[in-house]
Amino acid sequence: MIEGQHDIALPVRYSGLDDILRRVPVSVVWEITLACDLACTHCGSRAGRRRRDELSTEEALDLVDQIAELGARSVGLIGGEAYLRKDWLQIIAAIRARGMECDLQTGGRNLSDARVAQAAAAGLNAVGISIDGIGATHDRLRGVIGSFEMALTAMANVRRHGLEVGVNTQINAHTLPELRTLMDIIIDAGCHNWQLAITTAMGNAADHPDMLLQPWQMLDVMPLLAELAVEGRERGLFIQPASNIGYFGPHESALRNVMNDEIHFHGCNAGDTVMGIEADGTIKSCPGLPSPYAGGNIRARRLRDIWENAEPIAFNRRRTVDDLWGYCRGCYYAETCLAGCTWTAHALMGRAGNNPMCHHRALDFAARGLRERLVKVKDADGRSFDHGEFAIVVEAAMPAVLADA
Amino acid sequence: MPEPGRIPVPLRLCRGCRRFVRIEHADCDFCGGDLAALEAAHAESAAAVRAATAELRTAMGRLLGLP
């Protein structure tokens, strides 16, 4: 290999057309407990205490079998903090025994060397560690002083035991200015995968509207991310934008290029190749979606029955341009995009089908000397995966914004 | 067999302005470029880069004494 170049393999959770046609839940994201040792100001599930009726070990292991029967290739364990569940190693071992890859997404506060060693022995493939900004920014967002250093220590622990280490970062008003420097830090720490997502107005984040990006900030976000993606690839870091980052501006190709610059966003894939599971056995099409999207509970129905027949998780294959509203209804990209991330749109607007967090849309408004601003009009009620509601104000763009656009 | 998922509606990359456009269109809806001509020019340029890279790799191999 020529020095400075790196092989990049696609993660198994990437889905293809055959997966869509057979509707294989390629990637399952499973909240195995809501217990958490951090207190994140943006946490969508408002994690902290366990859910009252989390699955027993026996139920969890049976669920692993049911997930495998559907053909899943990757199971991501999340929380809360997954390692706070006493049987988390048993669950990892069961997932691996059924031939699926298993990764852990963690805040890393107490991901000690001993815990990583146990997880590696159980068969864990990879660990994604949440790092939101640098130092005090991360500590403030994660609600624990010192948690940034703890996350870096956790990364080192993971690498020491030979597991693949990735980083997950929230993009919001606090972290956006620090992304470039953070990229340098995580590359130096041995990270090869960086998952980025825009902070969604759900749970605790809905209570902190000052933290949320405004739609017009996509004019800054997308060029920056595209630049980081290109630079990252040259330095061996593979940037994976979440479904809520986009869509279709001039940087789309640079941002999503995975060895093919013709790859573009294809719309939300919740319920087609992605499945979310809550700690009490509730099945959703995406881990972040609120309760109206719950398809059922594995205590009442078999997983296959829910996956194949529950209408609340079938919205993607039912959705057409006629279901869109607002700007998205008449958008050039409507047929392909279908309003982007369902989770983001629903959390902001109270229903899916109109998503203001979009680069193409921000460019279109800027070209007319306008911009969209979100104003909170309804509070969230304080439950896990709840959301408030925002109104869109269209106003004259600031001169600086016009110049940047 | 479960009901199939939603089949994505593909778009085509304009090699002029890097916007994605509808595949049935001949000209880019954003920059007005001739999509086929831009694609042909891009393919020619990409082939030249590939050829140069192969030559460089061979030359480096010779310098380093690799088979």
Characterise the protein shown here:
The complex is a heterodimer of chains A (405) and B (67). Chain A is of the alpha/beta class. Chain A is built from 15 helices and twelve strands. Chain A has helices spanning 17-22, 57-69, 88-97, 113-122, 136-142, 147-160, 179-188, 218-234, 252-256, 303-309, 315-318, 334-337, 342-349, 359-367, 399-404; strands spanning 27-31, 74-78, 101-106, 126-130, 164-171, 193-198, 238-241, 274-277, 282-284, 296-297, 370-378, 389-396. A ten-stranded mixed β-sheet of chain A has the order 7-6-5-4-3-2-1-8-9-10. Chain A has a two-stranded antiparallel ribbon with strand order 11-12. In chain A, helix 2 runs parallel beside helix 3 (88-97). Chain A is globular and about 60 Å long. With 67 residues, chain B is mainly alpha-helical. Chain B has one domain. Helix content of chain B is 45%, strand content 9%. Chain B has one helix and two strands. Chain B has one helix at 35-64, and strands spanning 11-13, 20-22. The N and C termini of chain B lie far apart (52 Å). The chains are: A alpha/beta (405), B mainly alpha (67). The A-B interface holds A 2, 17, 19-23, 248-254, 261-262, 264, 266-267, 269, 271-273, 307-308, 314, 316-317, 319, 332-333, 335-336 and B 1-13, 17-20, 29, 57, 60.
